[in-house]
Fold this sequence. Notes:
The structure holds 3 protein chains of 3 kinds. Chain A is mostly beta strands. Helix content of chain A is 9%, strand content 16%. Chain A has 2 helices and 4 strands, in the order E-H-E-E-H-E. Chain B has a single domain, classed as Thiamin diphosphate (ThDP)-binding fold, Pyr/PP domains (Rossmann fold), CATH 3.40.50.970. In chain B, the strands form 2 sheets. Chain B has an 8-stranded mixed beta sheet with strand order 2-1-3-4-8-7-9-10, sandwiched between helices. A two-stranded antiparallel sheet of chain B has the order 5-6. By secondary structure, chain B is an alpha/beta fold. Chain C has 2 domains: 3-246, Thiamin diphosphate (ThDP)-binding fold, Pyr/PP domains (Rossmann fold, 3-Layer(aba) Sandwich); 253-386, Rossmann fold (3-Layer(aba) Sandwich), CATH 3.40.50. Chain C has 14 helices and 16 strands. Chain C has helices spanning 9-19, 34-45, 59-71, 82-87, 89-97, 122-125, 140-154, 184-187, 217-230, 232-246, 271-284, 302-309, 330-339, 362-378; strands at residues 3-8, 24-27, 52-55, 76-80, 103-108, 133-136, 163-168, 176-181, 207-208, 253-256, 263-267, 289-294, 296-298, 314-319, 347-352, 385-386. In chain C, strands 3-2-4-5-7-6-13 form a 7-stranded mixed beta sheet, sandwiched between helices. Chain C has a 6-stranded mixed beta sheet with strand order 10-12-11-14-15-16, sandwiched between helices. The longest helix of chain C is centred in the last third of the chain and has 17 residues, at 362-378. Classes of the chains: A mainly beta, B alpha/beta, C alpha/beta. Chains B and C meet through strand 1, strand 2, helix 3 and helix 5 of B and strand 3, helix 3, helix 5 and strand 9 of C.
Amino acid sequence: MTQSDKPRWQELEIGCIVTTPGSTREYKTGDWASSIPVTDPAKCAKCGICWVFCPDMARFIDQRTGTYDVNNFYCKGCGICARECPTGAITMQEVGD
Amino acid sequence: MDLNVYAARMLPEAEYFAPGHRACLGCGHGISVRLVMKALGPRTIVSNATGCLEIVSSTYPQTAWKVPWIHVAFETAASVASGVEAGVKVLQRKGRYPEKERVTVLAIAGDGGTADIGMQGLSGALERAHDFIYVCLDNEAYMNTGIQRSSSTPYGSWTTTSPSGAKSIGQKTWKKNMPAIAAAHGIPYVATATPAYPFDMVEKLRKAKEVEGPAYVHVFSPCPTGWRLDPSMTVQIARLAVQTAAFPLYEIEDGRMKVTVKPSKLRPLVEYFKPQRRFSHLSEKDVKAIQKRVRAEYKKLLAREKEGF
Amino acid sequence: MSHRKGLEVSLGISEAIKACDVDVISAYPITPQTHIVEKLSEIVAEGELDAEFIMVESEHSAMAACCGAAAAGARTFTSTASQGLQLMSEIVYIASSMRLPIVMAVANRSLSGPLSIWGDHLDVMANRDSGWIKYFVENGQAAHDHMFMAYRVAENPKVLLPVMVNLDGFQLTHVIEPIELIEAEELGDFIPPFIPQIQLNPLEPVTMGPAGTPAMFTEGKKAQEAALRDSRPVIDEAWEEFGKRFGRNYKAVETYYTDDAEVIILGMGGLTGTAKSAVRSMRADGRKVGMINLRLFRPFPDEDLHKVLSGVKVVAVCDRAMSYGGPGGPVASELKTSFYGHPDAPYIASFILGLAGRDVRTGDFEHVARRAEELADIGDPAPYELIGLRE
């Protein structure tokens, strides 16, 4: 059975259910960003606030350093992390085309 | 400064809501749902009403949900949850359900799907004392259809169906008190929460989960798009709502009030209004009058807590 | 051991639901189906059936709760009528699109206004295109029996569609008839255990009821419609098996004296009983009249009807519902459409009668038969004739 967005009718799951949990992760919301967060590692307190407050789960922990990096595949550039960072380590920078 | 924030990374790491969902930049629901699911875990079945959350998370062929999830209609979060709860209960009793452990049934709806069109279904489910959690994600208007007023829209707020104008202040009535209505059903647990206070919120959802019977959690979930707010301000505005008492954080456990976040000194309401263009038409006099009532309502909560009921 | 009992038909339905070992019942009172859920409530309270009985706060919630329960994998039941069916209508359509095998008894009753608690088919006809399998029963035994048919068909993995069993409000629900009750032990495996093909289960998470898109909605509807059409062999097989095990044989199109009939009266539900008497009486007078009891309304049994009615001079379709501003009664219109362009199509006359419980007598059918023949000869400018109208 397909989960394509243009299925033949015979290919649809019964009742049009979606059987792949979390399949939105295939969708690149990072394309929406007109600016993205950049962290100054010297200022990062590794507190995790940027990770907690991200509506798009676009932060992941770097196990080696303990810092939280941006996943640009998903980051929409809302700027919440930059504003909430208690040490001011994050700044938003405009992206090119 | 809230010391909770430095322990942020101590929240459970697992995510039950996937990235790639189509919510707007800075959407409060994105943070709220993450926190709710971190508190409740994977043995949760979600009954979602039609609305922003449902649309951004479940447009065919993709889903952001990693737990079983069902959407039927706009006013049915609670009524479908009632059926799910009853179904799982009887199937587990008859030994026919694949999951043997206790399953959490979670109903989620927006303010429209809760305080307006979904209110009857909610009242019925609460009265029948189903063992479930009802979370209202309150962004204070019908956002998915383009920012129309609901009974949860605060007094003075601009929306497309309560626009400010020469003859209008915007929303003409005071925000409907849904937590009080839920509490009036005599349910074991009622709470208000907001993602700006993540530990307070997670604790409350955990309590809701432990309760045997209905629990109602009203989550203040800012909408930068509808509130005409800078998308980076979502968490900050929710924090200001609590610190100005525009949205107080409390819980009612077995009928007993507890205000869980008490700002040492309330900030002026104008600090909460200023970043949001939905309030920009209000005069100083308007804001003063609203602040008066906001503070009076907050005092009532404190007084009730003091009296011990 | 089955036993024959004089029982109010509503209660015969409750007894059948008990024998079906239903898991979840959601209920809301509305005349004239309330006795069904009252009796079920007693049955559950006495511990005779292990089920969750949800006394909801409206019919809309009744159907929504059924959706939730069926999605969780439970065998579900509800019953309603009239305004209740209309109130839950949005969810009725959704239930079939979500392929949830819910069974519902509908005590057919008028739609307001003016308010009418009396029986007719206005409620079910307003939900014609809801995607549910629809049976019509004409007596207490058939009402009892079709609850079993409903679950066997609905839960069949090749079907997975909700089923509506329609019975006349008051004229059937509230009458006492002799019913041979089938109890759980005798039912045996006529209804196999319900194994949900799609289920809300944390061990295998799925998303049910997603938002569709223009790109796939058409395909979704086609898939749903195909499922409804393809349910026919399962429906027939269920009747056949029931006949083998319990000795009562049902069909989609049941005929009475139709072999050499020149005029055939066609109806659904209880009025076909009266029509039978009328046919016997007209036959005694030497008139070549016959009757069809249309038992299956959806999926519409075109082929069966064509087989019986091709070459027949006149069919007098007796509807208990109206379609305001439309080309005749609902069943009549569907039959006409079904026969369009067909060689040997009969003349199809549309009669509407029995609205809001108005008594239908053998004399009315005699009038219908006579009038239908007249219309066949002279042609008929009017889309329908309203029997018994005082003008």
